[in-house]
Amino acid sequence: MKNTQALKKVTILFAGDSGDGIQLAGSQFANTTALAGNDLSTFPDFPAEIRAPIGTVSGVSGFQINFGSEEIHTPGGRPDVLVALNAAAYRKNFPSLKSAGTIIVDPAGFDKKNLRLAGYDDEENPLLNKPADYQFYEIEVTRLNRDAMKEVEIAPRDRDRSRNMFVLGFIYFLYNRDLEVTLHFLEEKFKHKPDALEANKKALMAGYNYGDTIEAITRFRIEKAKLPAGEYRNVTGNQALALGLIAASKKAGLDLFYGSYPITPASDILHELAARKNYGVKTFQAEDEIAAITSAIGASFGGALGVTGTSGPGMALKTEALGLAMMLELPLVVVNVQRGGPSTGLPTKTEQSDLMQAVYGRNGETPIPVIAASSPSDCFWAAYEGAKYAIEHMTPVIVLSDGYLANSSEPWLFPKAADLAEIKAPFRTEVENYLPYERDEREVREWAIPGQAGLEHRLGGLEKEDKTGNVSYDAENHELMVKTRARKVALVAKDYPETRLLQGAEKADLLVLGWGNTKGAIQVAVAQALVEGLSVAQLHLRYINPLPEDLGAILQRYPHILIPELNDGQLVRIIRDHYLVKADVLDKIQGKPFLAEEILAQIKKVLKDGNH
Amino acid sequence: METTNTLSARDFSSDQEVKWCPGCGDYSILKQMQSVVPELGIAREDIVFISGIGCSSRFPYYMNTYGMHSIHGRAPAIATGLKITNPDLSIWVITGDGDGLSIGGNHLIHLLRRNVDLNVLLFNNQIYGLTKGQYSPTSELGKKTKSSPLGSLDHPFNPLALALGADASFVARSIDRDPKHLREILSASHQHKGTSFIEVYQNCNVFNDGTFLNFTDKKLKDENVLLLEEGQPLVYDQGKKGIRLNGLKPEIVNLEEGASLNDLWIHDSRDATKAYVLSRFFDDSLPRPFGIFYQEDRPCYEDDLLDQIDHAKGVQGEGDLDDLLRGKRSWTVG
Ligand SMILES: Cc1ncc(C[n+]2csc(CCOP(=O)(O)OP(=O)(O)O)c2C)c(N)n1
Ligand code: SF4
Predict the structure, then answer these.
(1) Over the stretch B36-51, which tens digit does the pLDDT of each residue have?
(2) Domain named Pyruvate flavodoxin/ferredoxin oxidoreductase pyrimidine binding: which ranges (chain A) (predicted)?
(3) CB-based contact (8 Å) between B48 and chain A?
């Protein structure tokens, strides 16, 4: 009998060479864990190169998962367990491991060659000089897996490819997990490759059984989390975003047109949507980002929900067309899955540094609503809401996600189609007295799509005459139109729900204000601070432009505001500018999300310094 | 539904005052368009003009149809999105040599290769009109303008060769000063299913007056204009001269000095090789061809896209939103 120890939560980091199938093993573990009833959050981290040099630190791929019987808000800070399939993975990730953590290594990945590739000096082998206080498991994954492969007809060069399954099987054993989800997955994946199927199944079982045979090993049990009742699925940010767009188009009764040019980390939205042709989704892989957005504008002119998605550099290219869409006052959703900038920057790393660009980055007075998603599943809601505002207010809307949200996953209590908010397009069909730029009380003009007799009209980017939309260079008219368009966008805020604190008291010494992907880390940090008796509260912003009308009064209640951002301080400027409050930034510009402990430390520092 | 046979050119003219310089070639093109569309059998509400930026791109404001005056160079992409959304519309892209070949060159070639069923009218005046007279991608080498006081160093584009190179399925040239010819070409481009590319020589009398004099001046044009007629030999200069092919090399022959009509090149707009040779009639040694250089029947992008959607619906069934939200693997808590 083995020992079994109960745990509330665990963070495991799977790491190996990018060719080792780490992402696959990690996501299988995530799916299985979700089905076992734990709450979880994942964070994949892979190299920018498609085939980074094998065995080197720059070629290391990682997949971190945080799961537990309590609510999980982040992929976990420092992992409890590091699985390192080679020396490079060990070298890169050991420093972030929790002290006294568990390390599982394959010694085959620490031979002379691998050590050298990982940058260790000769004679410097971490396995020969194990750090004290850590639980070290040396498991001969490669050798044991080869043994298992003896019973399978498989080419010698392919026999190590199932090592990831061996490791996964072992981890399943350790954490008392069922193999069923992964077996099912393998059968699907290798439907037409019986040899590969057998090899992978064998490897998975061999890993599991290996756990059973070794002595003196503790297994872990993590109870189900107490999640709200309902039906769940796992979802990544990019998947959720694509689903949100389809859902919005269906609820609005519009065709969905998605024009895009491939770019990391936004491409998966294009892939997701391209696979949904049976939902009537039209995807268009354009020749560049300018064609991507302008084709979407053309689609919106034609009565579809025009959407374009990209990341930083592509967003820069779309700028001029965004101005056009704003002038045309047609619905348009523009998704920016932010990555590290500037320029090509850090394509596979995350950052929140396109906020200023989203809010201000255009010529002329060009206000555009900006909505930010705060978790992988929240990407669904951000996209849905973005589309709703775009359609109902006849305006382009920018939806901000980022590389971290895009690729991370979490369980999602998904909605029923019938429960989604209605979306009503302001179509114009009445011929009598049609004026293209006449507005309703929300300053919204009507959408007269081509093909309707009697509503023929011309749109354009030249300044419009009030009501008629004819070209006008009149001075007073220009000012009127600029102000009208600004008011129209400001009025979007009337549709927002009430702004609510996530944690803490209505009055406290410090408010931690976040936006986008920082929500989870702030949530953990503020919860801990409250446990420690600190006077702090948490508020998370979804609507960055226009800002909620009730935000100012809330901010005024706090003598000090701390804004953690993955940039050099962008929201903080917007907040200071709008409200003249004392707000400071906690910045992090490392291509990585915040750790809760970093935010907690800053909370303590601010409160201790007492300079509020 | 309005019927089109009762409409006239006047019904297609909008209430906006036309603001091109007096004498500009754009007027004639507008006029020919307004008189051709009533004859095409399309309802007015099904016609859309999409333009970029430039003098020529003001065009949509003057047509009493749906229209969009967009941003510099992007009309082909906007029109593509519109056509994919609403394939029943008759969409006309209006662009200039700067708009279509400089800033928008990328979109133009991609439109042509995709073969979206649109008509592209490229108003070529070999100059930037709206920005007041800089050389354009079609200006001749050495051209002196405000931005090239010592002469332009840019080798010019040959728009039709470019279009053929991008596998355009309909390629033609016409000119503002030959209304009848222009109307015929507009009409033919509408009949063509796929992207029709029409280069229209257009005189900018303010910044580049007389660039096309060789093809418009009474005394010069006979010698320089070669009108292409399907199935007919290539003859010009009042029947005095013709073109013969020596292998793939075109030669001018004098019909008055014994050359026979039977030896001449017979125009065949379905022959891609000949079309390419014709497009290279681009210097003063050969007459300049006008007419339909090339046409081919090729599937259109939007039709293929709709086919894929129909096929996907046939195979996978019409998508249900709840199924989509649930995904492949869900579980229930509580
Ligand atoms: C992005 C951008 N760059 C530059 C301009 C300035 N611009 C307007 S029209 C034009 C050139 C137009 O030339 P052409 O397409 O030949 O049209 P024409 O005016 O001769 O009809 C330029 C450079 C602009 N409007 N937008
Ligand atoms: S500048 Fe030239 S092209 Fe423009 S309107 Fe005047 S004449 Fe026509």
Answers:
(1) 999 999 999 999 999 9
(2) 251-472
(3) yes
